[in-house]
Write a structure and sequence with these properties.
This protein has 217 residues and is of the alpha/beta class. It has 2 domains: 7-96 and 182-216, 3-Layer(aba) Sandwich (D-Maltodextrin-Binding Protein, domain 2), CATH 3.40.190; 98-179, Periplasmic binding protein-like II (D-Maltodextrin-Binding Protein, domain 2). The chain is built from 8 helices and 11 strands. It has helices spanning 15-26, 60-65, 76-81, 122-132, 147-150, 165-169, 189-194, 196-216; strands at 7-11, 42-44, 50-54, 71-75, 88-92, 98-105, 116-119, 137-140, 156-161, 172-181, 183-187. The two termini are 37 Å apart. Bound molecules: adenosine monophosphate (AMP). The site of adenosine monophosphate has 12 residues, from β9 and α6. Pathway: Amino-acid biosynthesis; L-histidine biosynthesis; L-histidine from 5-phospho-alpha-D-ribose 1-diphosphate: step 1/9. It holds the Pfam family HisG. It catalyses: 1-(5-phospho-beta-D-ribosyl)-ATP + diphosphate = 5-phospho-alpha-D-ribose 1-diphosphate + ATP. Its EC number is 2.4.2.17. Belongs to the ATP phosphoribosyltransferase family. Short subfamily.
Length: 217
């Protein structure tokens, strides 16, 4: 029998973690401590060959790209903003689902000739307006995008929307959907080759669980 390779999986706290842990449990990987409450950044699991590291969501691609982790789970929103990287993205986990949306103030007509758009998602926003041939000024923010149109910083925002409650609470309405977002499993290209059997087995097991979930949705 071929021995199992040691695998490190990068996860981040928050919505995606809550939905990733049940998927991992179904393939027999249960952390030794609850990552949501533990202060430890490296956690062993019920499977001796698999450990978890807990990093910031935007750092997941960096850890995986540079081999600090063999695999990671992160949102498509983060991956598309870091499009220069060459991570393998073998599986849509169909969790952490939301939409990347263009939104503006309710009851406000058209913005001016060169609207200002506030967003954390600069690359996706530029690509969206470039594809339409529309000139906009993109203003980079790191959070609370919904505030920008309310104080006149921007005409529109581009942000993630799940229930729509945050937009509504701030008098904003969705205008267009740029793309559907979900969490992806990403793999370090070197690990994909050197730890092929173990990585492929984990990806296949997770794919089966995701497919079974799709059946009950
Ligand atoms: P909601 O009020 O449910 O539409 O959620 C909107 C807020 O949650 C915004 O501040 C978004 O940036 C954030 N958000 C929504 N979905 C996600 C997600 N899947 N991952 C991270 N942040 C999200």
């Amino acid at each position: 029998m071929v021995s199992e390779s040691q695998l490190t999986l990068a996860l981040s706290k928050g919505r995606i973690l809550e939905e990733t842990l049940p998927l991992l449990a179904r393939v027999g990987i249960v952390p030794e401590e609850d990552p949501a409450s533990s202060r430890r950044l490296i956690l062993g699991t019920s499977r001796p060959s698999v450990r978890l590291i807990i990093v910031r969501p935007t750092d997941v691609p960096t850890y995986v790209l540079h081999g600090g982790a063999d695999l990671g789970v992160t949102g498509k929103d983060i991956l598309m903003e870091q499009s220069g990287s060459i991570l393998y993205e073998p599986l849509d986990l169909r969790i952490g689902r939301c939409r990347l949306v263009l939104a503006g103030r309710e009851g406000r007509g058209q913005a001016g000739a060169q609207p200002r758009v506030a967003t954390k998602y600069v690359a996706a926003t530029r690509a969206f307006f470039a594809a339409r041939g529309q000139q906009v000024d993109v203003i980079k923010l790191y959070g609370s995008m919904e505030l920008a149109p309310l104080v006149g910083l921007a005409d529109w925002i581009v942000d993630l929307v799940d229930t729509g409650n945050t937009l509504r609470a701030n008098g904003l309405v969705p205008l267009e959907t740029l793309m559907e977002i979900s969490a992806r499993l990403v793999v370090n290209p070197a690990s994909w080759k050197t730890k092929h059997a173990s990585v492929r087995a984990l990806v296949a097991a997770l794919a089966e669980v995701v497919e079974a979930e799709r059946g009950v949705q």
